[in-house]
Amino acid sequence: MPEVGVYKRRGLEIWLETAGDNIELRSSGALSKLASPLLNRVNKMLRNEKPIKATGEEVVLSTWLPPIPSGPFQRAIKAEMDILLRRKFSPQSVSMNISDCTLNCSECNIIEHEGELKTKEVKDFIAQVQDLGAITIGFAEGDPLLREDLFELIDYIDKKKSIASVFTPGPLLTNEVAAKLKEHGIYAVITGIKSPIPGEHDVARGFKGAFDKAVKGMKNAVENDLYVSMHTHATPKLVESGKLTKIYKLASKIGVHELSIWEAHPTWSYKDRKELILDDGHRREIMKLHQGANSSKEGPRIFYNAVFESPELFGCMAGRRWLNLIHSGDLTPCTYVPISFGNIREESVETIWRRMCKFNEFRMKRSCVMLDDEFRSKYIDPFSVSDLPISYKDVV
């Protein structure tokens, strides 16, 4: 029964134990009992979620999580222990929406802002969030491949502390670019698909040929040995029409490692709740797809954010484990919540993060706050697009 050391500190030792298809984290030491809630959560994922890769020496559970064991995973264990022992949260997952975009999507999370953060500003931010405990750093909306300094910024990330990912719609993801991403240490590439029907995807992206370029980009990334996730926002129509299942079949055909399903929600550019928010029936259908894919040895695994953010696992990560940087230098709790708690040009990241952690709404919610009608009505709906990002001073 192979055992691989994962984490060690005074009073606690954690190791990965594998026996055939069974993979489990075990622990010993005086703090072992205190660590059991964390290990139970991770082991629940290991039991119920098909890993991308599982050997006697390494487990890659998802494109969203660092491999076990690794430096970033050790930092994740430390961060969760800090929560259990000290109620101290850290920005484990960091996204940066600091790029222009080639598309014109009908649903867009990009808050308009002229100009672009300078290379030094982004490097300073990366250094600060890694000091605070970041384990994943993602170059996100719109298309990071448009940034001339992208590879310089990727190189600046200490890969012993954090895995690095690139979210790209695909038009610029050539074979040469994919090879360069791999060379510079990118862990995963995430590309969105709005519909399995090329014409519908192109309309949603506002760009003719967007579907073919996205598919080709994902194939290029797979061929260059990057972990690849196809990403989609699940809407009622996507579930009811059976197109979500077809998207999974497309992911299988392309050969990506994971289909990431995130529940759609009204953005500031698209506020029709009935068209975007799922009900319990829709969620049951997604869970059937999720469970079927992850119990089969064939095809990619499925990551479903409603499972990961359930009360039994980690709950809503906004402002608790997730921090997002936007073009203006403002810091928001995640990609979806347009509330700024400060600007990196004016204050340290730690000062802003501590302020964010004190916001009571993030303490109370155990599922995505943007799907909560009361939260949206109180903190988001009173403001217009011209008010974005909303200042925390106007909502506390």
Question: Topology, pairings included?
Answer:
Elements: E1 3-9, E2 12-19, E3 22-28, H1 32-48, E4 53-54, E5 59-60, H2 71-86, E6 93-97, H3 119-132, E7 136-139, H4 150-156, E8 163-167, H5 175-183, E9 188-192, H6 198-205, H7 210-223, E10 227-234, H8 236-240, H9 243-254, E11 258-263, H10 273-276, H11 280-294, E12 301-304, H12 305-308, E13 322-326, E14 331-332, E15 339-340, H13 349-357, H14 360-364, H15 373-379, E16 390-391
Parallel strand pairs: 6-7, 6-13, 7-8, 8-9, 9-10, 10-11, 11-12, 15-16
Antiparallel strand pairs: 1-2, 2-3, 4-5, 13-14
Provide a quick synopsis of the model.
By secondary structure, the chain is of the alpha/beta class.
What does this molecule look like?
The chain is α/β, with parallel strands linked by helices and 396 residues long. It is 37% helix and 19% strand. It has helices at 32-48, 71-86, 119-132, 150-156, 175-183, 198-205, 210-223, 236-240, 243-254, 273-276, 280-294, 305-308, 349-357, 360-364, 373-379, and strands at residues 3-9, 12-19, 22-28, 53-54, 59-60, 93-97, 136-139, 163-167, 188-192, 227-234, 258-263, 301-304, 322-326, 331-332, 339-340, 390-391. The strands form 4 sheets. It has a 9-stranded mixed β-sheet. A 3-stranded antiparallel β-sheet has the order 1-2-3. It has a two-stranded antiparallel ribbon with strand order 4-5. The radius of gyration is 20 Å and the shape is globular. The termini are far apart. The relative contact order is 0.11. The model has no long low-confidence stretch (mean pLDDT 91).
